[in-house]
Amino acid sequence: MSQPPSRSDPIDITSDLGARPALFDAMAASGTLYTKAGALVNVEPGRDGSGPRVEHMTADALRTWFADHVETFKTKSTGDVPTMVSTGLTRSLIKPGSRLPELKGLTRWPVITPAGKVHAARGYDRETGLYVDPAFEVPAVSDAPTPAEVEAARRLIVNDMLGGFPFVADSDRAQYVAALLAPVMRTYQPGPTPAVAISAHAPGTGKTYLGTALGVLYPDQAFLPPNLGGDRELSKNITSLFRHHPVGASILIDNIPLPLRFHRVSVTNSLSTPA
Q1: Which candidate, 40, 34, 31, 43, places its Cα nearest to that of 5?
Q2: Is the distance from CB of 102 to CB of 129 less than 8 angstroms?
Q3: Running DSSP on this structure, what letter comes out for residue 186?
Q4: Which of 5, 105, 215, 260 has its CA 20 to 30 A from that of 125?
Q5: Quick one: CA torsion of 178, 184, 187, 190, rounded to 10 degrees?
Q6: Cα distances (angstroms) measured from residue 238 to each of 26, 157, 194, 242
Q7: Strand 33-36 versus strand 118-119 pairing type
Q8: CA distances from 269 to 37, 102, 113, 195, 264 (A)
């Protein structure tokens, strides 16, 4: 995991061409600057409970970033003179290519990498390309949990969290537990994530509770109205949710009227198309 950014060693920018490698190194070591879809971006960590945000960097914004994070100077006949990086130089740095890590998205909860490692601390994870900014402190997990630890985790979910919900069968409970694990498992087992339908024969049984519980564990849950509108409008809404919510955030559609009609191109494409 990357460490919090700090000021780098002073960099001589007397020569624009000679300064570029050291400036690129400072950007790569920052812990906040990345490339995303070929563009330079800066990740601003969340504050006061809010999640991190991605800022697309212009040449002027990068110049300000250098002023805040990197000490630069030019060598004159009188000695070294503190000097800001010029806008012309930052324009040449705005397309760093492979010199910076690729940012694939943000997440507010721990990730499990394809190698099976758990990353729960704030910072960038190179294996998944995600910037992790947990919404709450996550206790350390053993690399090899003991049977007692596994049983304690099972009781926490099945008994303490879900013990009062009237599941019809154990298989129904198992499917909901799988839904609880889906967001954190997506980086370990990539691919389309199934939709989860929660139904009951009567109102007031706790269906909305089960849906919103996902939003407690995985913040920034998105909501779509039960009246989904036309497919074109729905497609725009889903695209907007994907763009503005963390990777793996759940989308809750509450109180869908019966008979259930969910065969929308936008919805089925979103569920069946790999990320």
Answers
A1: 31
A2: yes
A3: T
A4: 215
A5: 20
A6: 37, 30, 16, 6
A7: unpaired
A8: 22, 26, 25, 12, 8
> Nearest 5°: phi and psi at 30?
-70, -35
- Domains of the chain, residue spans: 8-103, 147-272
Q: Minimal CA–CA distance to 102: which of 122, 125, 82?
A: 125
pLDDT digits (tens, 9 = 90+) for 44-91: 876 766 778 889 999 999 999 999 999 999 999 999 999 999 999 999
d(C-alpha 2, C-alpha 121), whole Å: 9
Which value, in Å, is the radius of gyration of the alpha carbons in the chain? Answer: 24
User: In angstroms, rounded to a whole number, what is the distance separating the alpha carbons of residues 210 and 134?
Assistant: 22
Query: What are the respective helix, strand and coil percentages of the chain, to the nearest 5?
Result: 35, 20, 45
- Alpha-carbon span 238 to 236, nearest angstrom: 6
Collapse the DSSP code of 118 into the 3-class scheme (helix H, G, I; strand E, B; otherwise coil) and give the result. Answer: strand
CA–CA dist 33, 155 (Å, integer): 41
Q: Which residues lie below 8 Å from residue 239, measured CB to CB, with a gap of 6+?
A: none
Instruction: Kindly report, residue by residue over 82-131, the tens digit of the pLDDT.
Output: 999 999 999 999 988 888 999 998 888 888 888 888 888 889 999 999 99
User: Which strand ranges, in their side-by-side order, compose the sheet holding 33-36?
Assistant: 33-36, 39-44, 53-56
Please give the Cα distance from 102 to 126 (Å, whole number): 8
- pTM over cut 0.90: no
How big is the chain, counted in residues?
A: 275
